[in-house]
Amino acid sequence: MEKSKQIKDFLEVRKNDLAVRIVELQYGMQPDFWKTYGDEGKKLSIRDAGYHLPFLGEAIAENNPEIFSKYVVWVKTLFHNLKFPDDVVPKTLECTQLAIEEASPEYGQITAVFIQAGLNELNKPLQSISSYIQEDEPLADVLKAYLNALLSGDKNKAASLIMETFMKGCPVKDIYLKIFQPAQYEVGRLWMSNQISVAKEHFCSAATQMIMSQLYPYIFNNEKKGKTFIGACVGGELHEIGIRMVADFFEMEGWDTYYLGANTPASVLINAAEEYQADVLGLSVALPYHRSLLKDTISQIRQSKYARDLKIIIGGVAINEFSKNWNIFGADAYASDALGAVCEAEKMVEI
Question: How far is CA 5 from CA 98, 105, 310, in A?
Answer without folding.
Answer: 20, 17, 27
